[in-house]
Design goal:
- The complex is a heterodimer of chains A (633) and B (116).
- Chain A has 633 residues and is α/β, with parallel strands linked by helices.
- Chain A is 63% helix and 8% strand.
- Chain A folds into 2 domains: 222 residues, Rossmann fold; 361 residues, no CATH class.
- With 116 residues, chain B is an alpha+beta fold.
- The chains are: A alpha/beta (633), B alpha+beta (116).
- Chains A and B meet through helix 3, helix 9, helix 10, helix 13 and strand 10 of A and helix 1 and strand 5 of B.
- Strand 10 of chain A pairs antiparallel with strand 5 of chain B, so a sheet runs across the interface.
């Protein structure tokens, strides 16, 4: 297809083990000039960027981090297919200098595939600090490939690496495959007596052992270690505390608590300030347009519809950004792998992989991000179950609903009420996961095996880049939906023309009135409650906004008035039943869209919408009816 | 002391004990993954630790540390190195009781006794 000679601009592919600093190197090469998309047909992230060095430029593609290239695992298939079909002009193989043996295994596979290769001997400073003396010259001779020591997080060696890559691209167009051949002559006999290893690009099982043997031989011959290998590494010492039977869980919950403290205590003032600024801006626009004599409906649409919608979106951004920052930081520092390890046993009890706890935790921020994070799971079943139960985890958009009702009815026990709903969500997610994992058959890759990378202090710039990419993806996806939704709510409550806005005669009133009887057994059979739930299905925080509009206090203003209206229309019991319903009843529109995309299945998407509706309704009815039986009101 | 270097499963190693992988006996994709991560026959492994609830276990091999479930580790056969397990002092530090190595020695001892 895209053969090397036919391309206008050369392609550099970056390949390497997970935790080899591949992403840091990609960031160091491309800087901000990168683009995140998906590999065709699958939901694995594909990062691309541009690099210019002198008068030459190239397209840089970050391949998924893999240990090998021969298996049928999704990541490896993607990397292998890109290399064999798209034929990049050069592959930069990122290698962790502190662990040559394991990393060289992939290098040898790449060379066996006949790939033109330049090696980035990354984390070179760490290797030196560990007392490892790597003979770069000797290694280069053994592999027959150009090698450049780098420290990607400090951008050291990046220039040399790019020079080497561009030089190799030029050399290739004149010399052909000489690089690969020079190596074959050196090692073919030692590697495999039959010579099978080098004869073809086949990556069969039998070749694993000789390749590793070769990797170990090369590593031993080029690395002189000054320090005692048996000595405990700093990471091992840290893990003695972090994975200690008594301390592991307190530390785990402490980290999660700190993460949420960081996210919400920092974002609250910013979000409030943004909300105020947007409100003031809306008022200013209304004032200016009012003076020009623009039609009243148009002004109202602009101010209460579009500007209020933008406001809702902007208030969303700070907590999402901070949560992603915290997650990226914990990932980069190496704690996430430990957290997966200690939660594996718990997750296994509900039929899930330890890594599935990351989508769950993220779900507390936003279910869309939680569902996107399920991509990191290898097993199709684990992914599906994680995606389907994620909406039961109470996302931050539901918090305003809880706070509003808890303030109205349980002002002294606000925290307890909110906590009970979060806990209910977790319990339901566990139960549903357990049930689903019984019915969905496990596939072969439902295994745990994962590496515990050494602890490393991350570079804040790298964390920020990752945070920005994830936030942007979220805001892009959820943003359009939320904005659209606010406009639709406004339109429905102001149509048909002639009906008083937000009255039972408006469209919103009619929709609510049609559904209300169904909700009567749960104690909140008013058309306002029904309409709020309908719009809450578009985005959960719209429940508050809709109630605000319907009880006549307008979007974003007069919370005191709204609390009064709610106290007049609900009882504490029906309010709690309503909150249970609001927690469970349906994923929001952005989440549904994400589920559709990530599962690739209409049937599962329909299921993800239907089962919470039934479950939420049933639970709300149970809460209300049982509560009345035992004499609560 | 009775020496026992008879093959055992990877999760049957004692804390801190070393061994050499003899066989990776699990089916297809998992076997491939384990071997791609460096757990090939002939590789030296060490049981580094155990997660707080007893599962998964942590092993080190080829300079990296891997977490794997006992169920997965059970399919890997290793030949333990004699006397490479934790000393009593280090066992106490990890808070573990009767060791796998000790119980293996006990089994061998009983087998010896019953044979005579």
């Amino acid at each position: 297809m895209n053969d090397a000679s036919a391309r206008a601009i050369p392609v550099i592919a970056i390949a390497g083990n997970p935790n080899s600093g591949k992403t840091a190197l990609f960031n160091a090469i491309t800087g901000a000039r990168q683009h995140v998309g998906n590999w065709p047909g699958v939901t694995v992230e594909k990062k691309e960027g541009r690099v210019t060095r002198g008068d030459r430029s190239a397209l840089v593609v970050d391949l998924p981090g893999t240990y090998g290239l021969g298996s049928q695992a999704l990541d490896e298939t993607i990397a292998r297919d890109f290399i064999t079909r798209e034929r990049p002009d050069i592959v930069i193989n990122v290698v962790d200098s502190t662990n040559l043996e394991r990393n060289l295994y992939l290098t040898i596979q790449l060379l066996d595939m006949g790939v033109p290769l330049v090696m980035a001997l990354n984390m070179f400073d760490e290797a030196e600090a560990l007392g490892l003396d790597i003979d770069v010259e000797e290694l280069s001779k053994a592999l027959g490939a150009k090698i450049v020591p780098t420290v990607a997080v400090r951008r050291q060696g990046i220039g040399d690496l790019l020079d080497a890559a561009f030089a190799a691209i030029s050399a290739q167009s004149t010399q052909g495959d000489s690089l690969v051949q020079s190596r074959e002559s050196q090692y073919s006999v030692e590697a495999d007596g039959s010579g099978r290893l080098h004869g073809s690009a086949k990556l069969h099982d039998p070749a694993i052992e000789p390749r590793y043997k070769l990797a170990a031989e090369i590593a031993q011959s080029v690395v002189a270690s000054a320090s005692d290998r048996a000595a405990e590494s700093p990471s091992q010492r840290i893990d003695r505390v972090v994975l200690n039977p008594w301390l592991a869980y307190p530390i785990f919950f402490g980290v999660v608590w700190a993460m949420f403290q960081f996210t919400f205590s920092l974002s609250e003032p910013v979000a409030g300030w943004l909300g105020g600024a947007i409100g003031a801006f809306g008022g200013w626009v209304a004032h200016v347009l009012g003076a020009t004599g623009a039609p009243e409906v148009a002004v109202a649409f602009l101010v209460d519809g579009i500007i209020a919608g933008l406001g809702a979106l902007l208030e969303f951004a700070p907590p999402i950004f901070l949560l992603f920052f915290a997650i990226s930081f914990l990932e980069d520092i190496g704690y996430m792998a430990r957290a997966a390890l200690i939660s594996d046993r718990l997750m296994d009890a509900v039929g899930l992989h330890g890594k599935a706890f990351i989508p769950m935790i993220l779900g507390f921020g936003c279910n869309v991000t939680g569902i996107l994070a399920a991509r990191s799971l290898d097993s199709r079943r684990d992914r599906l179950v994680s995606i389907l139960v994620n909406p039961l985890i109470s996302c931050s958009a539901r918090l305003p609903v809880y706070v509003l009702f808890a303030s109205a009815f349980f002002p002294e026990r606000r925290g307890l009420v909110v906590f009970s709903l979060y806990a209910l969500g977790v319990v339901l997610a566990a139960l549903v996961a357990k049930v689903l994992s019984v019915f969905i058959r496990p596939d072969a890759s439902s295994t745990f095996v994962m590496e515990l990378p050494p602890y490393r202090m991350p570079r804040i710039s790298g964390v920020l880049i990752q945070t920005w990419e994830r936030s942007r993806e979220f805001l892009h996806k959820a943003g359009t939906v939320i904005l659209l939704a606010v406009v639709v709510v406004w339109a429905l409550s102001n149509l048909p023309p002639g009906a008083a806005p937000g009255s039972p005669e408006s469209l919103i009133g009619k929709i609510g009135g049609a559904i209300a009887p169904l909700l009567k057994p749960a104690g909140f059979g008013s058309w306002q409650a029904a309409a709020a739930l309908v719009f809450g299905a578009i985005a959960k925080e719209l429940i508050v906004g809709t109630l605000g509009v319907l009880y006549g206090s307008g979007v974003g203003s007069g919370e005191i008035g709204l609390i009064g209206a709610i106290q007049a229309n609900w009882t504490p019991l029906s309010a709690y039943a309503f909150l249970v319903m609001a927690l469970v009843y349906m994923p929001c529109a952005a989440t549904i869209a994400t589920i559709r995309r990530e599962t690739g299945s209409r049937a599962w998407t329909a299921f993800a919408v239907a089962y919470p509706l039934v479950l939420g309704w049933a639970l709300a009815v149970i809460v209300y009816q049982v509560g009345r039986l035992i004499g609560l009101a | 002391m009775i020496k026992d270097d008879r093959p055992t499963s990877l999760d049957g190693l004692d804390l801190g004990e070393r061994g050499t992988i003899i066989r990776v006996g699990c089916p297809g994709p998992l076997r491939r993954r384990l071997m791609d991560m460096g757990l090939t026959p002939g590789t030296e492994v060490r049981l580094e630790g155990v997660a707080p609830l007893g599962d998964p276990i942590i092993v080190s091999a080829r300079g990296s540390r891997l977490g794997l479930r006992r169920a997965e580790a059970a399919s890997i056969t290793v030949s333990p190195w004699p006397d490479s397990a934790c000393t009593d002092r280090c066992r106490r530090r990890h808070g573990r009781g009767w060791s796998n190595a000790a119980s293996r020695r006990m089994r061998v001892f009983r087998a010896e006794v019953s044979r005579h």
